[in-house]
TrEMBL record:
<dbReference type="InterPro" id="IPR000109">
    <property type="entry name" value="POT_fam"/>
</dbReference>
<feature type="transmembrane region" description="Helical">
    <location>
        <begin position="63"/>
        <end position="82"/>
    </location>
</feature>
<keyword id="KW-0472">Membrane</keyword>
<feature type="transmembrane region" description="Helical">
    <location>
        <begin position="403"/>
        <end position="424"/>
    </location>
</feature>
<feature type="transmembrane region" description="Helical">
    <location>
        <begin position="135"/>
        <end position="159"/>
    </location>
</feature>
<feature type="transmembrane region" description="Helical">
    <location>
        <begin position="180"/>
        <end position="199"/>
    </location>
</feature>
<dbReference type="GO" id="GO:0022857">
    <property type="term" value="F:transmembrane transporter activity"/>
</dbReference>
<feature type="transmembrane region" description="Helical">
    <location>
        <begin position="21"/>
        <end position="43"/>
    </location>
</feature>
<dbReference type="InterPro" id="IPR036259">
    <property type="entry name" value="MFS_trans_sf"/>
</dbReference>
<feature type="transmembrane region" description="Helical">
    <location>
        <begin position="322"/>
        <end position="341"/>
    </location>
</feature>
<dbReference type="Pfam" id="PF00854">
    <property type="entry name" value="PTR2"/>
</dbReference>
<feature type="transmembrane region" description="Helical">
    <location>
        <begin position="361"/>
        <end position="383"/>
    </location>
</feature>
<dbReference type="GO" id="GO:0005886">
    <property type="term" value="C:plasma membrane"/>
</dbReference>
<keyword id="KW-1133">Transmembrane helix</keyword>
<protein>
    <submittedName>
        <fullName>Protein NRT1/ PTR FAMILY 3.1</fullName>
    </submittedName>
</protein>
<feature type="transmembrane region" description="Helical">
    <location>
        <begin position="444"/>
        <end position="468"/>
    </location>
</feature>
<feature type="transmembrane region" description="Helical">
    <location>
        <begin position="205"/>
        <end position="230"/>
    </location>
</feature>
Amino acid sequence: MEKMEENKSKQNNVKRPKGGMIAMPFIFSNEVCEKLAVVGFYANMISYLTTQLHMPLTKAANTLTNFGGTASLTPLLGAFVADAYAGRFWTLTVAFIIYQIAMTSLTLSAIIPQLRPPPCTGEQVCQQATSGQLALLYGSLLLGALGSGGIRPCVAAFGADQFDETDPKQPTKTWKYFNWYYFVMGASILAAVTVIVYIQDNIGWGWGLGIPTISMFLSIIAFVLGYPLYRHMDPVGSPFTRLLQVSVAAFRKRNLTMVSDPNLLYQNEELDASISIDGRLVHSKQMAFLDKAAIVTEEDNVKAPNLWRLNSVHRVEELKSLIRMGPIWASGILLITAYAQQGTFSLQQAKTMDRHLTNSFQIPAGSMSVFTMLAMLSSIALYDRFLIRIARRFTGLDRGITFLHRMGIGFLISVLATLVAGFIEVKRKQAAVAHGLEDKPHSIIPMSVFWLVPQYGLHGIAEAFMSIGHLEFFYDQSPESMRSSATALFWTAISVGNYVSTLLVSLVHKYSAKPDGSNWLPDNNLNKGKLELFYWLITGLQVVNLLYYICCAKLYTYKPIQTPTKDAESEEAASKV
């Protein structure tokens, strides 16, 4: 009886394991509401800026791409805070609240007439927003960018943290999670660019921005409710400090002769325990000059090392891993530049075309990205259910193909997307000329908007391959203690891609201008522009980028890691008893 009671008390004291599939309903519920909010807020923002605040097209396009760039740059700050001090859960919670404030203030500007310019009708010159109205806009966008800084580097990584890759009893792998994450995200975006955009165009911007604001509030509640079930990864200090320590130590020992045997380099499992839970990085031959940071000299105290003079092999390899990731990171920039045109010039193309499904219903121009989402969702589903199984037979890999191969396929499809977009623009302008509408920018060209579906769809397929592969690459190949920071690199590539888009648009707009007023990218009449040449310019840049990526992928060395398993850890613990 005493033994039975003792066993029961032991069972009661056993903590329920955290993380895994039990945490997914809360994380995915949060993702659904958060993406519905964010995308519903900004998918049609170009229309809000041009029709409600009366901004010129190029200024509105650059405002949005600059916001997109800033919102993708702030994740570096959010990632640093999450990895070094706060952890991913609390960073996310605070970031959600900041984003909520941003959305609320912009929604108020859509509801209160004094916070936006008076409406204009017909061909009259519209009054642009005052400095105060623009200050509210830019303040809201800035708060949104700060909120994004905490959300973007942490939300995908926090979900992946719920799965322990070292546990052989856990059937779900992180690469499957990333497919699910992107599928749930895509489905939410699909709802945003259909339902929310329709409300904005046909019911009003008060409701059109109010519903996403309410959705963001619900996402915060869903996320916080799951707190007891989450697997939390504790912050382990500044990763940037460790990288700097390795660099300084290697520089200070630059004149030392490299040891003949890598096994003589400094190892300290106790020192690295908190930053090598999923496995210890082992020595690699590349960038041997950094290995000097791990050479032990007579001046070094191996029991309590001065990390500005002596670092372990694991810490040296952390820096090497990040350096190796750099060229692959850079290759993703131009794909984002190409993708960014969907929210600006492609949307303006759609506005000039026949968008009617029936005599009484027409597709909002901002909802054209629904075809991007449908193509992306279909590609993810086909990839997860069929392509992986087929590829697995040939490669023997559990994930079917490597993330580098997956990214390469995405790059190739993106090249086709902008190439096709140029030809479709030629046809659109020919239709405008044929019907005498070349000089009537506000008239609808009798050409179905479904001609734009191929370019939208190809961008969606490209994203299903490249973006998921890119995100998986950063999470998998980064040191485990820097996963928020590495995921921030994914968003930083998006940031730079948006800034490159802004720079490219500005340069093309400036240098393609002619004395007669013609321009590749005109402010007011797309029918008289040369948008197809702009698309083909991006195509040419992407071809060069694809060749660069192939070289980088061939030369890339995967992260060298010695991974412990839960079974091995259990046996080791049992042997110590």
